[in-house]
């Protein structure tokens, strides 16, 4: 296994009077690395403010912390010991924003001991009266080394050096497939001591040596194909993320791990597991004292490497212990917050990932149907690529539209590659799972379920070839692209809003049924970057759900105005597409949902009468209390 050899970066932190400078200087001597005192980097205005007895605020500290982060980056090759208060987690995030591994040493003591030390300290700008504000500000981390300031300096140094020399990895990951490799590298690139494991099965013997060889420049990255070695080389409590195929493989790996795990260890399933399986595993492992987190991960290979959207659910206590790692490697939203948040109990994390994939299915199908309408109406591929790129600059901006504009430009020889691709869409099952889950809670899921059915129908390519020959070619109907394009653009915008509303309503209803407490605004926030369905619409949903968390999305004033203004165009676009003999399942489903959702009187009264006629299922009456049910003798024969 690869071992780290670089000089360490150590930050000794705590409130004033804890001995940061003394311990920091001793550590720098033992480690043979430079020492820096963060107090020496305060601007004069900060020094004057503290000397007058006024505590610093976040704005006062911002430029100071950024300067210190720069200092750390400058010394990442030769090492550094920095004495710095670093009282809040947000301050520590700024200091650790580079790609270096940081060893955190917290000097902790009682108020009485710290007060006595401050009173003995001479010629320092810090006013002892500020100790109370510092203790109130201190946010103790769940990582790093904590030592008691009442221990002797020698005892403290020995404790720190012993902890640093253990060389155990902070985080373990099992499975070096595409996503597993990318997440492992992401962790390593963010300074985490990460250890990867991949089984030494026939045909896979080369994976670990090759992975280490390709990444020999990362001293904090190790890998092994020996499971016992993997488990023994992890810090306790162990934090182990599984990136293996959903289903039986997850259960098999858990059983392999269990004999060597200790109570309090944490297993994180980062695959696309079914949320019912996640709940079962959570209950099973809880009985054995092992924490379990089901974590949805979205963003594909690139997202996993550069920053995915992460949806952890399950054990809240376990999440708090792994949050510093997941949030560090996640994508960043527009406010530079990690696209990662605790979703809810049991299988909530994997559930929202499943619905995310369902929304994704329908979004992809909408773009495909848009392509079909424009192509059938005579638009050349190169012009369509330019059109999609133009749409992607405004309100329709999304990752899926962006990549579609890109892929339409690719040629193989003289032909566009898109024209050479066999038109049978694949799927991994999450779309179908979400459709079944919607039926379980009785929530309309039309756009998403129709996108799944469209893939199923596309897979019947040989049958479709035979049918097309029997039914003949589609009629050629002339279309004015200048008129059609604006109509389709508005229809596409409307259908996307409806599709998102359907997906989020499914999440809300299921969360209520399971008492998960899913925060839709936070969920939308972590889907604004890193994931496949990131878009400008998702940005809008963050504030929309924050303003009205319990309301149906399509009742929000902004979406009411949008859909009222484009309903005619959505209807006409669907009509024209159907007249071209095109299959538009998601466009039509979106329109049908909108029509059904906005019609006060539906045709369900006929259905209730039919049910009562043949099965005596009873019905309610509009002119009677709804608590009462009736049965009628319908036939006069």
TrEMBL record:
SMART domains: 6PGD. Residues 349-635 form the 6-phosphogluconate dehydrogenase C-terminal domain. It catalyses: 6-phospho-D-gluconate + NADP(+) = D-ribulose 5-phosphate + CO2 + NADPH; D-gluconate + ATP = 6-phospho-D-gluconate + ADP + H(+). Pathway: Carbohydrate acid metabolism; Carbohydrate degradation; pentose phosphate pathway; D-ribulose 5-phosphate from D-glucose 6-phosphate (oxidative stage): step 3/3. Homodimer. PANTHER family: 6-PHOSPHOGLUCONATE DEHYDROGENASE. Belongs to the 6-phosphogluconate dehydrogenase family. Belongs to the gluconokinase GntK/GntV family. This is 6-phosphogluconate dehydrogenase, decarboxylating. The gene is gnd.
